[in-house]
Design goal:
Elements (H helix, E strand, L loop, with lengths): L7 H9 L24 E4 L2 E4 L5 E3 L3 E3 L3 E5 L3 E4 L3 E5 L4 E4 L4 E4 L6 E5 L6 E12 L3 E6 L1 E12 L3 E6 L2 E6 L2 E3 L3 E4 L2 E4 L1 E6 L5 E3 L2 E3 L13 E6 L5 E3 L2 E3 L4 E6 L5 E3 L2 E3 L5 E6 L6 E7 L2 E3 L3 E13 L2 E3 L3 E9 L2 E3 L2 E3 L3 E6 L9 E2 L4 E2 L2 E7 L5 E2 L7 E5 L5 E8 L3 E6 L5 E8 L3 E6 L5 E3 L2 E3 L4 E6 L2 E11 L9 E6 L2 E9 L6 E17 L6 E13 L2 E3 L4 E14 L2 E3 L2 E4 L5 E2 L8 E2 L8 E2 L3 E3 L6 H4 L12 E4 L2 E3 L15 E4 L2 E3 L2 E7 L7 E5 L5 E2 L5 E4 L3 E11 L2 E14 L13 E4 L1 E3 L12 E4 L5 E5 L4 E3 L8 E6 L11 E11 ...
Parallel strand pairs: 3-5, 4-7, 5-8, 6-9, 7-10, 8-11, 9-11, 10-12, 11-13, 12-14, 13-15, 13-16, 14-19, 15-20, 16-21, 19-22, 20-23, 22-25, 23-26, 24-27, 25-28, 26-29, 27-30, 28-31, 29-31, 30-32, 31-33, 31-34, 32-35, 33-36, 34-37, 35-38, 39-41, 40-42, 41-43, 42-44, 43-45, 44-46, 44-47, 45-48, ...
Antiparallel strand pairs: 1-2, 17-18, 38-39, 59-60, 62-63, 64-66, 66-69, 67-68, 67-70, 70-71, 73-77, 74-75, 75-79, 76-79, 77-78, 78-84, 79-83, 80-81, 80-84, 82-83
Length: 957
């Protein structure tokens, strides 16, 4: 993640220095199982443990230098021997007889050692023994096919040490409370089981717990199982708990399996950590059916080819993290109540090419990890807990709340993504966008994330409107509302980037960046950081930041005008080379950001009242009578003077105001006056501080909505009682028991998620003549192809038919809406007349026909029509909405009507157009002759009508 990458790489680098890395190259073929000593055996989990009929008694300390079966007959306590029992022969069975071998915890001393420096040993079994107080409780070196069963190694430097061996099985053992020893002022060890260069090692049904120094002592050592350069390691059915550093640290290994084990309360790097060298990154590891809790990390894997399935991870720092990995498969994993449940990190595109299906869940919600999918939709119906889009053009993400993951939303190489009404909180990064062009982000929020709310890298053509990026926290130079680097053509409007740990908005090495109506208040270090070419900042409130309001990096052609500064230090120009910048535009009609009559420069204030705009007199037109010189190359020629603020008056609209759960309502602020803050109460316990929020109602009922607006002169509040009505939802194939419903002028449809009408609806036009009849089973969709929620019918006039047409207007016409709605099959538009009305209508004897007015062609077109003279009705069969007129045909010739009425083309929804459209031309008006119009007066008036939102400690990153 460039300079903002999480600290996982640094943590790994430091941890790897704690022990010597061994080269690769394990044997491919495993040796045969231990040699059978006789026919008497017992079976433990399918492993045959040899029980010899006769055992030769031995007394420790002892050396076993010939094959045979031996029985230990004594205990050792506080022994100063270098080795209690040294096995130097193959084909040895040692029964410890339940005895205990105790040493004095000196360096290089071993409780039981199986090694012969002259040859490789084979078929060694050690069982039923306790070992305490040695540098290595059990040491196995240069052995093929060994079994350690029911061994208890407690309080050694390392419990079991296996090196340069093959086919070793550790079964039903207890390896706990092993602690580091000092060597030359440095502490080493404190590992439960250490395995290196030993293919085919199996650790089964073994308790490996509480190793290393922790708690009241400094945290040293503490690997439960430390595996280096092994092939085919199997860990199954084990309990690996309370180790100071890591449950399993497995590096430079292949074909590892960790199955059905318990990992609880391990510190440091957590439960399971796996990595491989960059030169030979294939792990081909399986991590399956494990339970991990209370650890620093749950499952942290690096490098390639993992199968991670059916694990449960809870209460950890991270749940599952794929870090600089490739080709991982994740399925059926449950992650809940971790600080960060799930994440994928890397610095190359290939690091994000994984198979992660929706059976993986975070806090009970599915992980949506999409690769190479075009036009996908991830919305509230999916219940997604985190969303990744890798090469997913035209992806739509909407109506979600995403918490406690590495990223709420992550995009890589995904163009034209639309994100609407998405909230990301308590992630590392709320929204992370990499190499993804032409994205549109609207009405969304990122707060309380530990790195940044929005992070955008190497992406062009972004439109970002109506956002909140607040209270994002982190360490030094972390906790930024919106961070953008190496981007081009980014437009941010109506953005609140306040109360962040570092900066409100940080833009570096980018071109054509537009900040309009941005609020960047009370950030701990700096309001805005700007670096690049062609940057415009206008209509922004930048107040109360811990350092400068704006910190400029290397930049050219920056234009800052009509902004409100109120900081101890408003601008810091010392962090880069600033050339070609302007701090005002030419005088143009206002009102400006402080209600003065003209646009020009900026309002410069300080908390103690000594700001330039506060102490410099008005020259008579709302500008200070002297320019503000920032430095030798930067001057505001037209600094603003404050004018009294008009009082705020709250007002708003909501659409739609009724519908079926879940109902998404868009609220539009229409308040007047100088307003710097908005606070909405939606009536369901939820709130928002956006100016124009979108809110989703899930529970059936009626809701009153309150808007409170604040400004420099006070506040205003408006409550609209019961403005929102939410009705019972229905699903496909379920009519919900709905009967036919009747409405006047506006009717509400009960539809499935596919738009199928589930109950007949009749809507009267209000004149007792026209009505719409929409039958059950009709598929009704709006102009965007979404299920239609309401219809309208209103009596109206009709455009005059062209001269020479063979039909004339009868006097009855209706406008039906909404425009763009379609129906399949057709619905009925019914004209019903009284006996007197029918007599007048039919007086001239001309046939009747319904026609619709095609606004595209400007001509009438026929609609399939049925006339019933007995019931005195005329029924038109319509498939789309328009103006429908009842016509008299003026000849007996039949007016051609197509056998199939084709609905009007449903337009494709176009991206929302920002209030100010960014372009390569700066939004700067130029001076003209006195009395002439300014070329950009129209743009300036639009800006003025917007509801305007709202140092040396600044360091260049």
């Amino acid at each position: 993640m460039s300079s903002h990458r999480p600290i996982t790489g640094i943590v790994l680098m430091i941890a790897c220095l704690s022990f010597l890395l061994v080269g690769c190259g394990a044997a491919d073929d495993l040796p045969p199982p231990p040699l059978e000593l006789n026919d008497t055996t017992t079976e433990t989990d399918s492993f045959l443990v040899q029980v010899p009929e006769e055992l030769t008694p031995i007394t420790a300390p002892a050396v076993i230098d010939r094959p045979g079966a031996y029985l230990l007959t004594n205990d050792l306590s506080q022994s100063g021997a270098e080795t209690a029992i040294w096995i130097q022969s193959s084909d040895v069975f040692l029964d410890g007889g339940g005895h205990h071998l105790g040493g004095v915890l000196s360096l290089n001393a071993t409780g039981v050692l199986a090694e012969n420096i002259s040859e490789t040993l084979h078929n060694v079994t050690i069982t039923n023994l306790s070992v305490t107080g040695w540098a290595s409780g059990i040491g196995i070196t240069g052995v093929e096919s060994a079994m350690l069963r029911e061994i208890r190694t407690i309080g050694n430097q390392d419990g079991i040490d296996i090196g340069e061996s093959a086919g070793i099985t550790v079964l039903d053992c207890t390896v706990t409370d092993n602690i580091p020893l000092e060597d030359g002022g440095v502490f080493f060890g404190g590992t439960g089981i250490e395995v290196s260069d030993s293919p085919g090692t199996r650790i089964l049904n073994t308790n490996v717990s509480h190793n290393g120094w922790g708690e009241e002592l400094p945290a040293v050592g503490g690997y439960g199982i430390l595996s280096t350069n092994n092939t085919g390691l199997l860990v199954s059915g084990c309990s690996v708990d309370r180790n100071v550093n890591t449950g399993i640290w497995n590096e430079y290994a292949k074909d590892t399996q960790v199955l059905g084990s318990q990992f609880h309360n391990n510190g440091g790097n957590g439960g399971i950590f796996m990595t491989a060298p960059t030169g030979d990154p294939v792990m081909n590891a399986t991590i399956s059916d494990n339970t991990i809790s209370g650890s620093g990390w749950g499952i942290w894997v690096m490098r390639n080819d993992y199968l991670v399935q059916n694990n449960t991870v809870s209460g950890c720092g991270y749940g599952i993290l794929l870090d600089m990995s490739r080709n991982a498969t994740l399925t059926g994993n449950v992650m809940h109540d971790n600080e960060l449940n799930f994440g994928v990190d890397g610095n190359e595109y290939e690091h994000f090419l994984h198979q992660v299906d929706t059976s993986n869940t975070v806090n009970g919600r599915p992980v949506y990890y999409l690769v190479d999918q075009s036009g996908a939709i991830v919305d509230s119906a999916t219940g997604a807990g985190t969303v990744y889009g890798i090469s997913c053009p035209d992806l739509i993400i909407r109506d979600l709340s995403l918490e406690n993951n590495l990223n709420g939303v992550f995009l890589f190489a995904s163009d034209r993504v639309a994100i609407t009404n998405v909230t990301a909180t308590e992630n590392t990064i709320g929204f992370f966008i990499r190499e993804s062009d032409d994205a549109r982000i609207e009405m969304s929020a990122a707060s309380d994330n530990t790195h940044s709310g929005f992070s955008i890298e190497a992406s062009d053509g972004l439109q970002i409107t109506g956002l909140e990026a607040v209270r994002n926290v982190g360490g030094m130079e972390e906790g930024t509302g919106i961070y953008a680097e190496n981007c081009r053509d980014i437009f941010l409007q109506q953005v609140n980037a306040s109360d962040n740990n570092f900066a409100g908005i940080d833009v570096e090495d980018s071109e054509q960046v537009y900040l309009v109506d941005v609020t960047a208040d009370a950030n701990n270090v700096v309001g805005l950081i700007l670096g690049g070419d062609t940057i415009q900042v206008t209509g922004c409130y930048i107040r109360g930041n811990g350092g400068p309001g704006i910190g400029m990096l290397d930049s050219t052609n920056a234009t800052c005008w009509n902004n409100y500064f109120l900081n101890e230090e408003n601008v810091d120009l010392s962090q880069g080379v600033v050339t070609g910048s302007s701090w005002n535009i030419s005088k143009a009609p206002g009102p400006n950001i402080v209600n003065g009559p003209f646009f020009g420069g900026n309002y410069w204030a300080k908390p103690d009242g000594t700001g330039w705009s506060q102490i410099t007199p008005d020259r008579g037109d709302g500008f200070c009578n002297a320019p503000l010189v920032l430095d030798g190359g930067n001057t505001d020629l037209l600094p603003l003077v404050y004018y009294p603020d008009p009082d705020p008056v709250a007002n708003f609209t909501a659409a739609p105001s009724s519908g079926y759960s879940p109902l998404t309502v868009r609220f539009q602020d229409e308040s007047t006056g100088n307003i710097t803050g908005w606070h909405w109460l939606f009536g369901d316990g939820q709130t928002s501080d956006l100016q124009h929020p979108t809110h989703q109602y899930w529970t059936v009922g009626r809701y009153s909505v309150t808007l409170n607006v604040t400004g420099p002169t006070g506040q205003s509040e408006l409550t609209r009682p019961d403005i929102i009505s939410v009705r019972k939802p229905v699903s496909d194939g379920d009519d919900g028991g709905f009967a036919a419903m009747s409405y006047d002028e506006t009717g509400y449809l009960v539809t499935s998620s596919q738009g199928t009408v589930l109950a007949e609806v009749e809507v009267e036009a209000g004149d007792n003549i026209g009505k719409l009849v929409i039958s059950k089973g009709v598929v009704a969709r709006d102009g965007d192809g979404e299920p239609l929620s309401e219809v309208t019918i209103t009596p109206s006039g009709a455009p005059t038919p062209d001269a020479g047409a063979n039909f004339v207007f009868s006097g009855y016409a209706y406008t039906c809406g909404p425009a763009g709605a379609t129906f399949s099959p057709d619905i009925a538009l019914v004209f019903s007349f009284t006996e007197e009305e029918w007599a007048v209508l039919m007086a001239d004897g001309q046939p009747l026909m319904v026609m619709y007015y095609n606004e595209t062609t400007g001509a009438y077109e026929g609609v399939s029509t049925s006339v019933n003279s007995v019931k005195r009705t005329v029924t038109a069969h319509v498939t789309h909405f328009s103006v429908f007129a009842l016509m008299h045909t003026t000849t007996q010739a039949e007016t051609p009507v197509p056998s199939t009425v084709v609905p009007a083309t449903v337009p494709t929804a176009a991206p929302a157009t920002p209030l100010i459209t960014p372009s390569s031309t700066p939004l700067v008006p130029t001076a003209t002759a006195a009395g002439a119009d300014f070329p950009v007066v129209g743009v300036l008036i639009v800006i003025a009508l917007l509801a305007i939102a709202g140092g040396n400690v600044f360091r260049r990153r």
